[in-house]
Design goal:
By secondary structure, the chain is an alpha+beta fold. The chain has six helices and eleven strands. A hairpin with a 2-residue loop joins strand 1 and strand 2. It is rod-shaped, with a radius of gyration of 41 Å.
Length: about 350
């Protein structure tokens, strides 16, 4: 009986050990997937701030091994900023395109990506994640969005594969469970359970998208590395931005002038109405004096003289504004003087 008990305990112990070993293998596999898998070995971190990073990692693999990159590659920070800064994206349900990268993002990424490409080997890519405030992103709880990318130089051209683009950024997310995943050479169909925001990178000289097995990858951008090309593109973009600012300023001035003109027109209409009433009163004054009984003339009170002077001034204003002609002016003036 004791031997059976010992055998049972040993059997249970071995069972738990096997289960623990299986769980360890499963968990280690999950951990590898969370970090990008065994094909995403990180060799160097160029820059990191919280969830943001620029790092060097091994090439990701599709169905077949990718060709070797032209690494190390020498692209200056200014060249990187000009290439990335020239990119605009049109999101669905948005009125107009917006920049892919903000000015602050470009300042952070230029030096880091340039350094990464210089240090990377032929079988390594530069991956990065960046957060920023984008006008196309609207959230009631957060004001920042996150984007992820994979960059490398192949056949003398700068390749940029977009993973997430201007997605809602939740800082409290547990990144060991939900890592920020860079773009991938391998095509992944959209997840039907996930809400997908459709976007399209705007056409630009020196920019094209990758086509693999007859499928156009709108997330895989291939850029000409001619520095003068992108310097000119950035200059044109800045000029267009300044033109838009000037147009907005002029439109604001026109609106302000229109408002002032409307107020002036209202004031003139009010004055004109008052003048019309004064003319009617002046027309009725001789008739009233003709029907009044004759009385002995008495010296006019000073207040009456002031009123007559005021009427003469109004009459002069009517003539100056062209509301009455010279003949009418002389006739009305004589009527006022005769009433003294």
């Amino acid at each position: 009986m004791g031997r059976k008990t010992v055998f049972g305990k040993c059997k249970a112990l071995y069972g738990r050990m096997i289960l623990a070993a299986v769980l360890a293998l499963i968990l280690s596999g999950c951990g590898a997937n969370l970090l990008g898998g065994k094909n995403a070995e990180i060799s160097s971190v160029i820059w990191k701030h919280r969830d943001q990073f620029v790092r060097i990692e091994s090439q990701d693999r599709a169905t077949t091994p990718p060709p070797a990159n032209d690494h190390p590659a020498s692209l200056s920070a200014e060249q990187i900023r000009n290439m990335l800064g020239s990119l605009d994206v049109q999101f669905e349900k948005q009125e107009k395109p917006v920049p892919v990268f903000t000015f602050k993002e470009l300042e952070l990424l230029g030096e880091a990506i340039s350094s990464g490409l210089t240090q990377a080997g032929p079988r390594e890519d530069v991956t990065f994640a960046i957060t920023g405030i984008h006008r196309d992103f609207i959230s009631f709880s957060k004001d920042r969005s996150v984007s992820t990318y994979r960059a490398f130089v192949e056949n003398g051209q700068f390749n940029l594969i977009i993973g997430d683009l201007h997605e809602e950024y939740i800082e409290a997310t547990e990144r060991r469970l939900y890592p920020l995943v860079p773009g991938s050479r391998k095509y992944t169909p959209p997840n039907p359970r996930r809400k997908i925001t459709t976007w399209q990178i705007m056409p630009e000289a020196g920019l094209k998208t990758k086509t693999i097995d007859g499928r156009e990858r709108h997330d895989w951008l291939v850029l000409n590395t001619d520095p003068q090309l992108w310097k000119s593109a950035m200059a044109e973009k800045k000029e267009a931005k300044e033109t838009a600012k000037e147009a907005f300023r002029e439109a604001s001035e026109v609106r302000e002038e229109s408002a002032q003109l409307e107020l002036e027109q209202q004031r003139m209409r009010s004055e004109l109405q008052e003048m019309k009433q004064t003319i009617e009163q002046m027309k009725q004054a001789p008739a009233a004096s003709a029907t009044a009984p004759a009385v002995a003339p008495t010296p006019a009170a000073p207040a009456g003289l002031d009123k007559i002077e005021q009427r003469l001034q109004i009459l002069q204003q009517l003539k100056a504004k062209g509301l009455i002609n010279d003949q009418e002016f002389r006739a009305k003036k004589q009527e006022i003087l005769d009433s003294i």
